[in-house]
Amino acid sequence: MAMILVVEDDLDAAATIARILRRDDYEVAVVNTAAQALAEIDRQEPDLITLDIMMPHMDGIELCRQLRTRPDTADTPILMVTAKGTVLDLVDGLDAGADDYIAKPFDIRELRARVDALLRPRQPKGAPSPTTTVGNLTLDSRTAEVSIAGGTGILLTPTEYDLLKYLMERAGEIVSPQQLLVEVWGYPEGAGSPDLVRAHIRNVRLKIEPNPSDPTYVKTIRRHGYTIRSPESES
User: What is the spatial distance between Cα 18 and Cα 169, in angstroms, rounded to a whole number?
Assistant: First the structure.
């Protein structure tokens, strides 16, 4: 049984989230501050963390950054659940290391879908090759790193890894944001926000592109979606 840590200073919201998750047979621990969250994590390592942003003393953004520096929580899925729901808030949360983001008030089905997606196994067992290569890009499943032309590996978050791998395995194909939400995030049809995809695409580009504002590898195809291509294929 997966254990989920709910970090939420609004007692009513915390109780609601915990009740939904317990109905789905998850073990749930609830804390109301960042300090309590760190103490709880020292006691038992969660399988997933839901995290509010607006909390006293240390907000969720700073807590998320700290969690990503700890070996025991560096790869723990983090779902931001917060009333701050603008695109800029989404980008701030993902930049801090969150894997996903849901704004209050949320639909119960969407919360369940996002939790289920974050807890699903990230990599299939018995993959035929540990690396995927498109042009100068090589993605290594053993280290979750991408390298460019054999250079130093660039560490990706779990979601960035899943997203880049999906695109690289379909190099040259145009993939819509909704397809990515279903296939990479594991959401039901119609769930999830294209802003989530855009924010993760932005972060991937910041890591791999020589000029993120004029991408070489991950291209946007207006009104259709995204594709990954090697410069060699366009020459």
Answer: 37
Question: CB count, 10 Å around CB of 233?
Answer: 10
Rounded to the nearest 5 percent, the helix, strand and coil shares of the chain are: 40, 20, 40
Contacts (Cβ under 8 Å, ≥6 apart) of 58: 33, 34, 35
To the nearest 10 degrees (0 to 180), the angle between helices 11-23 and 108-119 is 60
Tell whether 14 and 103 lie within a shared domain.
yes
Asked whether residue 125 is assigned to any structural domain, the reply reads no
The three state secondary structure string of 153-200 is CEECCHHHHHHHHHHHHCCCCCECHHHHHHHCCCCCCCCCCHHHHHHH
State the pTM of this model: 0.73
Domain boundary among 119, 145, 161: 119
CA-to-CA separations, 110 to 29, 36, 148, 185, 213, in angstroms, rounded: 21, 27, 36, 12, 32
Q: Which residues is 175 bridged to in the sheet?
A: 226
Cβ neighbours for 123, distance < 8 A, ≥ 6 positions apart: 141
Q: pLDDT tens, 3-28?
A: 999 999 999 999 999 999 999 999 99
